[in-house]
Amino acid sequence: MGDLTPNPDRPGLHISKPSPDAPARGSAVCHCGARATANGDAQVRLLVQGWESNHGSAHTKR
Question: Is the pTM of this model over 0.85?
Fold first, then answer.
C-alpha cells in the first residue's frame, strides 16, 4: 500500500489507529490550502468534525 498521507496534489483526510490501545493520529489537506494534523483520539475526533464542517465535500473548489 502506498503513502496515504494527504498533500496538495492529493487532498483528503487520513486517520490511523494501529491498535485499540494506541492513540489515533490524523492529517488533513484541503484543496483550498488548509491543512491540519492531530494526535490523540479526542483531537482526531475534532479534526474529523472540522473537516466535515468546513472542508472536503462541505465546499467546492473555486
Answer: no
Q: Which of 58, 1, 53, 8 is nearest to 28 (CA)?
A: 8
Per-residue tens of pLDDT for the chain, all 62 residues: 567 788 888 889 999 999 999 999 999 999 888 999 999 999 999 999 999 988 877 765 44
In 1-62, where do the E strands start and end? 12-16, 25-29, 35-39
Residue 45, φ and ψ in degrees, nearest 5 = -60, -40
CA gap 54, 12 in Å, rounded: 12
Cβ(32)–Cβ(11) below 8 Å: no
Residues recorded for the chain: 62
